Prior knowledge:
single chain, alpha+beta, Phosphorylase Kinase, domain 1, 5 helices, 24% strand
Amino acid sequence: MDDDGNHGIHSLHLIARGAEASVYVGILEGKKVVLKRRERKRYRERSFDDYIRKRRTRQETRAMEKAASYVNTPKVVASHTYDIVMEYIDGERPNKSEETAMLIGKLLKKIHKSGVIHNDFTLANVLIKRDGAPYVIDFGLAFQSTRLEDRASDLYTSAASMGELANVVVKGYSDKEVEERYNNIRQRMRYVKE
């Protein structure tokens, strides 16, 4: 790592700040890259905070690399203690539509085939490049699992984020066993809401 802590990335500017991390765009070796930095949480005891940030950074890096065998993800350029440097994807977020809902379901099924649970797969975490290629981003809450309950729960969260198009997401996912568990989760959630 270089002296300024930016891993040789120049012209950094903040593009997003979330609950878990800050995201910057900059230039590394003449190419546009993204730097995702897990910020310190001052309310947590320091050694525990360090442990959590390191663990989540490793988990996210592994999840992106595993999912990349099945879906387009930004290529990881480098992973550091609390930072991930990745390829910049020049794309737009898709509009909410039936076509997009179907795409969300299909992409999520592919992510699950890689053994990854995205855990936050919404329209906000898809970019469409000019050539039409969809890219899945932000694996910050992802973990590795092939459990039916985890896959169905991930489908439930993604479908719910699409509101009235939830059934189209499930149709796009197209897996009877997961759909049955998804419906079971929906029933449990109705019970909780009442």
